[in-house]
Amino acid sequence: MYKRVLVKLSGEQLQGRFESGFDAERAAWIAKEINKITDHDTQVVVMIGGGNYARGAQLAGGGVQRVSADNIGMLATMMNAIALADVFEASGVPARALTNIKADQVVDQFTHRRALSHLSKGRVVVVAGGIGRPYLTTDTAAVSLALELECDLIIKATKVDGVYDADPVSYGDATKYDKLTLQEAVERPDVRVMDKAAIALAADHKQAILVCKLLTEGNLAAAAAGEPVGTVISVS
Questions:
Q1: To the nearest whole number, what is the mean pLDDT of the chain?
Q2: pLDDT in tens, 40-74
Q3: Residue 9 annotated in ligand binding
Q4: Which end of the chain is more exposed for a tag (fewer CB within 10 A), N or C?
Q5: Does the annotation list 91 as a binding residue?
Q6: Any binding-site annotation on 171?
Q7: 226 in a known ligand binding site
Q8: Strands, sheet with 4-9, edge to edge from the N-terminal-most edge strand
Q9: 135 marked ligand binding residue
Q10: Which residues pair with 231 in a beta bridge?
Q11: Is 53 annotated as a binding residue?
Q12: Is residue 230 a known part of a binding site?
């Protein structure tokens, strides 16, 4: 098992059976899967998206400035983090929400030392607010956070079971990659599982990424244990 992993979750995964918003049943299922990791003394950081409420890139335009739109998207991640941490706690998984946007009345501010303190006490740390600045995605924020907290692995939990050379939902003959180098992931236009800025940052610092399907029971724990699941994107 790795000592510390970062799990990147999209906001859409939290909407579950709903067209938008937050599905507590889906969150409780995720808590159960995360618990399989923490039960083996692996520390878990979660970087959460906000697409189930708002996406900055989609909101921009029609009078809404891009900076304002991105700020709204970051606020959406904060709502998810607060709710997700509550569901984790109710499910018996100790968790704390932290945010990179100043909002002391509703959630604690992220600091390096505060995050490490929670992790050392066996709590899952759910981080909101992306990187705290516009024009940067939560994918890029996830890589930055993983580097800051010295995570051994980034687990990108998606709708599909790895990285393909085409959308496997639309193309039945799409080929799955078991392994890719970070350089290949940056250079290949068919690799779209994370934005290129995020992968480039990971490549610069040799940060390993594993892409797997969220809704397969045991996948997150298998990834955290170093078992062959999904697609591994690493230095070699």
A1: 95
A2: 999 999 999 999 998 887 888 899 999 999 999 99
A3: yes
A4: C
A5: no
A6: no
A7: no
A8: 108-109, 95-99, 124-128, 43-48, 4-9, 153-158, 209-213, 231-234, 179-181
A9: yes
A10: 211
A11: no
A12: no
DSSP state of 157: E
Report whether 164 belongs to an annotated binding site.
Answer: yes
Q: Give the range of the structural domain holding residue 184, as residue numbers without chain letter.
A: 4-234
216 labelled ligand-binding: no
Q: Is 4 annotated as a binding residue?
A: no
Q: How far is CA 236 from CA 65, 174, 184, in A?
A: 41, 23, 10
- On whether the CB atoms of residues 94 and 121 are closer than 8 A, the answer is yes
Is 59 one of the annotated binding-site residues?
no
Q: Are 214 and 30 in contact (CB under 8 A)?
A: yes
Q: Consult the annotation and say whether 50 binds a ligand.
A: yes
Burial of 200 (0-12, 13-18, 19+ CB in 10 A): middle
- Position 232 confidence tier, pLDDT thresholds 50, 70, 90: very high
Is 228 annotated in some ligand binding site? no
Residue 105's domain is classified under what CATH number? 3.40.1160.10
Neighbour-count burial of 149, counting CB atoms closer than 10 A to its CB (0-12 exposed, 13-18 middle, 19+ buried): middle
Residue with tokens 């998810």: 80
Query: In the chain, how many domains are there?
Result: 1
User: Looking at residue 214, what is its pLDDT?
Assistant: 96
The vertex-149 CA angle with 13 and 66, nearest 5°, equals 55
Phi, psi at 7, each rounded to 5°? -105, 120
pLDDT at residue 136 is higher than 90: yes
| Residue spans of alpha helices (H) in 91-181 | 112-120, 138-148
Q: What is the pTM of this model?
A: 0.94
- CB burial of residue 189 (10 Å; 0-12, 13-18, 19+): exposed
Tokens representing residue 57 in the block? 């890139």
Query: Does residue 94 have a known ligand-binding role?
Result: no
